[in-house]
Design the sequence.
């Protein structure tokens, strides 16, 4: 679509990776009267953006992203959706003034952890004079709340698994590696790595099928923000697919950090969880750590 609003000076840009979140953000922005401009990341965003003003751009093309900001009067940007592939050094195109403003950009993008990379991306965007806002600022209803979302609540065994997986996810986050952990029978059996939550749950399902995890005990997936994580990027998120994979892995349910995680397809998740006897609940890790 062509840009029919050249007079906008604080227009919202959505830098769209994979998954459902970019579409949620775009639709919510449109519903409140905005005309968002979509920068769909090549080989990451699988959505059809023909109903929005948009362009497709490579993940490392910061010069191109900055040019799009200036052409379309962008004043704010949202980073949304997952990115599976880090750019190679040869894929990074940034103007000299940007590299001077953020001198460690290449080293961080290629060698830093996910949170370090996202912080660097935010600094690169801000070097263009564009303010980065969180997806939850555009769609606040997506934030998870404390307590169970549906009719099913964690039992005593599940509470013990939540405590174990919470401690593991916090330790993992301090290393800037991942946001999720799975515990079964009070024992941590999987930590989220580069494969993401879906890959971790597939691994748990395979371990259970192979008899490496108890068939009798169910277990829990916990997803948390990393300690000190910038909430403007990569908040933990779950959707119906996450719940389906947790069920396939034999888990009893999912716990996410209240107020610092995103629950997509909320009504569908609740219906699916209730139908299959699984729980989805919001937790506050600091409170749990103080519980004897």
Sequence:
């Amino acid at each position: 679509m062509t840009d029919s609003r050249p007079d906008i000076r604080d227009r919202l840009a959505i830098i769209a990776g994979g998954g459902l979140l970019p579409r949620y953000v775009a639709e919510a922005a449109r519903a409140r009267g905005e005309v968002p401009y979509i920068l769909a990341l090549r080989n990451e965003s699988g959505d059809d953006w023909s109903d929005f003003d948009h362009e497709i751009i490579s993940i490392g093309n910061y010069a191109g992203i900055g040019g799009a900001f200036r052409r379309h009067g962008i004043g704010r940007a949202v980073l949304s959706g997952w990115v599976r592939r880090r750019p190679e050094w040869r894929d990074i195109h940034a103007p000299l003034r940007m590299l001077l403003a953020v001198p460690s950009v290449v080293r961080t993008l290629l060698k830093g952890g996910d949170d370090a990379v996202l912080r660097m991306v935010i600094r690169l965007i801000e070097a263009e004079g564009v303010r980065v806002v969180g997806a939850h600022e555009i769609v606040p209803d997506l934030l998870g709340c404390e307590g169970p979302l549906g009719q099913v609540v964690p039992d005593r065994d599940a509470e013990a698994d939540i405590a174990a997986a919470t401690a593991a996810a916090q330790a993992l986050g301090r290393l800037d590696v991942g946001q999720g952990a799975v515990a079964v029978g009070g024992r941590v059996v999987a930590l989220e790595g580069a494969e993401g939550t879906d890959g971790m749950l597939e691994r748990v399902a395979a371990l259970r099928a192979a008899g490496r995890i108890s068939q009798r005990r169910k277990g829990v997936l916990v997803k948390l923000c990393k300690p000190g994580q910038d909430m403007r990027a990569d908040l933990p998120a779950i959707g119906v697919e996450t719940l389906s994979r947790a069920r396939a892995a034999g888990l009893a349910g999912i716990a996410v950090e209240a107020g610092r995680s995103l629950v997509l397809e909320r009504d569908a998740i609740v219906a699916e969880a209730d139908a299959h006897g699984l729980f989805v609940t919001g937790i506050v890790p600091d409170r749990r750590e103080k519980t004897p």
Q: What stands out?
A: The chain has two domains: 11-138, 143-290.
